[in-house]
Design goal:
The chain contains 26 helices and 21 strands. The protein starts with a helix and ends with a helix.
Length: about 575
């Protein structure tokens, strides 16, 4: 058949080919060219025509050697062997081609070549490299996991097992790959399957599973869904229960150590307390001590409340000593012991010529003396109202003005206040400013009386006994009976009274062993009678009895407190009322 006839025949065949077949061939991205056994082109799609640079009509029917020299298609026809990945140039474009012979029964009737531009191949290779790298990293992650990883498809067939799973379960991957989970259960490899439960419930499931070797393992299986909400695979995380039990044991051991360290810390705190004159055994005082240490580093104002003699000053000194101001002054002011007309000058100082008899050079007040340190206002409830206003101003503005002066002076003082009075009740009664109370009561500490913490009595007795023995070079001890009497006493004067009693009995007792007979008289009386009971020896008029009892109580209160203001507070009356009663005597 001549060239013209071949061309005409090819065109005729092309024209008679179904339209949809042409559309499919032309839509293929790669170039496609087919030749017959004689090497003439009988098929060419649009992508191949674009590579050649000619219309499809001008390519069909022409010899392949004229259209694409060196295509290798005739070699495939002659040898019957496919050729893959040949690199060649078509019309200035570098392509890769795959050539395949076309067989009809046992004879070759032609060949087909597929051509792909080099840039497209490079893009595909690049994507393939990325995919391979991701696959490699995924494999490394799965294999490096300490936990066993077990993966099935959405139907429950095993697709992936890592080495950790083999180690945890003792089951090799060769035994399970491709198996259905129900078969693994039937074969006795595992007791039951969390994967099957996930496929049924469509949610994460955690179980304890037993393997054929008797190992207990914890398995958590999680479903993976596609966009249609279908489970595409189930990923199971497997852990050896023995490891978990070991971790639990280690955690338990850590808890024991923590408790031991906490106990040692408490013992160290106790040692520190004893070395700092703060003696306690009771939980109530432990809370006070811990609160004092917690607030010490901060400059917040502290209000310490409690009965006279409970140790308010000791706690105040502890706060100062544990603060950043420890190297600076700790100045104590007893607001109830200083006469009212002198208290203002003591606190704020005075300028030269402020009043008759004053120092010509003036004098700094205790706020200035305590600069950068701590000012302890003991019995702050005794402050007159006019001084309460000035104290409030100092707290707010951090400035003081001396009596008789006009100049304001900046002071940096940590303020700790203390009182044995019910300040809140005083606020209600109008004898203490409410705004000052809230300024002072930033950190409230309430020290309970000694009678409410009997655990501290014995500790304090031993402390004072040791301290006084060292001070006076003695070696005296208490008999159990004497210690019992002291322990059972209600200590209305609190720690201060206990200290005084201990000093009294150590000095006054002639023997090194102090018994009940060496204790003050009121310790040996019947407790039911009470050491301050009223003794009636004869009938007298009630008015005279009241007068005598009143005078006796006033005398006792003044002796115990050493202050008219404190005595009035102890008796539950105003300072002015007590002064009036004393003048009647």
């Amino acid at each position: 058949m001549g060239r013209r006839k071949w061309h005409a025949a090819a065109q005729a065949n092309s024209e008679h080919a179904p339209t949809w077949m042409k559309a499919i061939i032309n839509s293929i991205y790669n170039g496609i060219i087919a030749i017959n056994a004689s090497g003439h082109i009988i098929l060419c799609n649009q992508s191949a025509a674009n590579l050649v640079g000619k219309p499809v009509e001008e390519i069909i029917g022409h010899p392949i050697g004229e259209v694409i020299p060196g295509s290798g298609l005739m070699h495939v026809v002659q040898t019957g062997k496919a050729m893959v990945g040949q690199r060649l140039e078509i019309n200035g474009t570098v392509v890769y081609s795959n050539r395949t012979p076309v067989w009809e029964e046992e004879r070759i009737i032609g060949a087909v070549g597929v051509f792909l531009e080099e840039t497209s191949v490079e893009a595909i290779l690049s994507e393939l490299a990325v995919f391979k790298q991701l696959t490699k990293e995924h494999d490394m992650l799965v294999e490096s996991s300490f936990d066993g990883i077990f993966i099935t498809d959405g139907k429950g067939y095993v697709k992936r097992v890592n080495s950790a799973y083999e180690m945890v379960t003792g089951i090799s991957r060769e035994e399970v790959m491709g198996k259905h989970m129900s078969q693994m259960v039937a074969d006795g490899l595992i007791s039951h399957s969390s994967t099957l439960q996930v496929l049924e419930k469509k949610e994460q499931v955690t179980i304890v599973q037993k393997t054929r070797s008797g190992r207990d393992i914890m398995v958590t299986s999680t479903p993976i869904f596609n966009d249609r909400g279908e489970i595409t695979m189930v990923v199971s995380n497997v852990r050896n229960m023995s490891h978990l039990k070991k971790l639990e044991a280690e955690l338990s051991e850590t808890r024991v150590l923590t408790e031991r360290y906490q106990q040692q810390l408490k013992e160290l705190q106790m040692q520190q307390l004893h070395s700092s004159e703060v003696i306690y055994q009771s939980p109530a005082m432990l809370k006070i001590y811990e609160a004092a240490l917690r607030v010490a580093p901060f400059d917040s104002t502290v209000l310490i409340q409690g009965e006279s003699g409970v140790g308010k000053e000791v706690v105040a000194r502890l706060i100062h000593r544990e603060s950043g101001r420890a190297e600076k002054p700790f100045i104590k002011v007893n607001c109830g012991a200083i006469p009212e007309n002198l208290l203002e000058t003591e606190l704020f100082g005075y300028e030269s010529g402020a009043f008759t008899g004053s120092n010509k050079a003036g004098k700094a007040g205790l706020f200035e003396v305590a600069h950068e340190g701590t000012l302890f206002l003991d019995e702050v409830g005794e402050l007159p109202l006019n001084l309460q206003v000035k104290l409030l101003r100092v707290i707010q503005d951090k400035e003081i003005k001396r009596v008789g002066g006009n100049k304001f002076r900046t002071v940096d003082v940590r303020l700790i206040a203390a009182t044995n009075r019910d300040v809140e009740a005083m606020v209600q009664a109008g004898t203490f400013r409410e705004d000052l109370f809230y300024r002072l009561n930033v950190i409230p500490l309430h020290i309970p009386p000694l009678r409410e913490r009997p655990e501290d009595v014995v500790a304090l007795i031993r402390h004072f006994l040791q301290k006084l023995n060292e001070k006076y070079s003695m070696n005296k001890t208490l008999t159990p009976a004497a210690l019992k009497k002291l322990y059972e006493y209600h200590w209305p004067g609190n720690v201060r009274e206990l200290n005084n009693v201990m000093e009294n009995i150590l000095i006054m007792s002639e023997s090194n062993t102090i018994g009940v007979e060496n204790l003050p008289r009121h310790f040996t009386k019947d407790r039911d009678a009470g050491h301050d009971a009223v003794v009636v020896t004869d009938i007298i008029k009630l008015a005279e009895a009241r007068k005598q009892l009143e005078q006796k109580l006033i005398k006792m209160a003044i002796k115990r407190t050493g202050s008219l203001r404190k005595a009035a507070s102890l008796l539950g009356m105003d300072h002015s009322t007590l002064s009036r009663l004393l003048h009647k005597r």
